[in-house]
């Protein structure tokens, strides 16, 4: 059976557990299997450019160590740390959740909004959207003001996500919303019902693409 390795680059196991639960609809008879792992060398949350750069080496080491038994890799952090470096280390598909989440949003609506964790995350998101040449499709990027480890407080997190999603819809004109942190995975279904827009959970988006590539043998 083929295997997709989903790497959470931060060291917070609760985030990995949430990602793992979000994979349930994608675990189909006949595979590929989806394995979610925590990068224990990572910080508790990736909340700065320094955090992003600190995990590039460990992600690469994990990709090299698991290359023989995996058919694809997903980097489950919305900054896509080490994405291009990892792609140089394997012939297997390596997918970043930011790239895949945004690309999925483009197929679901004309203008997408991003829910960030912290205000300081927004410049990284804007750089990435700019690198993808998609500034004209971005409706807005708004922060909930909570760090990665604070996302386990369900009441506070959902209240802020719901408020920001409505602002993206009503003030910015978004017609699809992308959750800008893998730690938000558990809130997708509830948020989609609340805001009345399609909501992209980017780890699911990346894993869905990885499944397609694994099944179609898109590696050389």
Summarize the structure.
With about 220 residues, this protein is α/β, with parallel strands linked by helices. It has 2 domains: about 5-95 and about 205-215, Rossmann fold (3-Layer(aba) Sandwich); about 100-200, Rossmann fold (3-Layer(aba) Sandwich), CATH 3.40.50. It has helices at about 15-20, 50-55, 55-65, 85, 95-105, 120-130, 155-170, 190-195, 200-215, and strands at about 5-10, 35-40, 70-75, 95, 110-115, 140-145, 175-180, 200.
Protein architecture, described:
By secondary structure, the chain is an alpha/beta fold. It has helices at residues 13-22, 49-54, 56-66, 83-87, 97-106, 122-131, 154-170, 188-195, 202-215, and strands at residues 3-8, 33-38, 72-75, 94-96, 112-116, 138-143, 176-179, 198-200. It folds into 2 domains: 3-96 and 204-215, Rossmann fold; 99-202, Rossmann fold, CATH 3.40.50.12500. It has 9 helices and 8 strands. It has a 4-stranded parallel beta sheet with strand order 2-1-3-4, with helices on both faces. It has a 4-stranded parallel beta sheet with strand order 6-5-7-8, sandwiched between helices. The protein is globular.
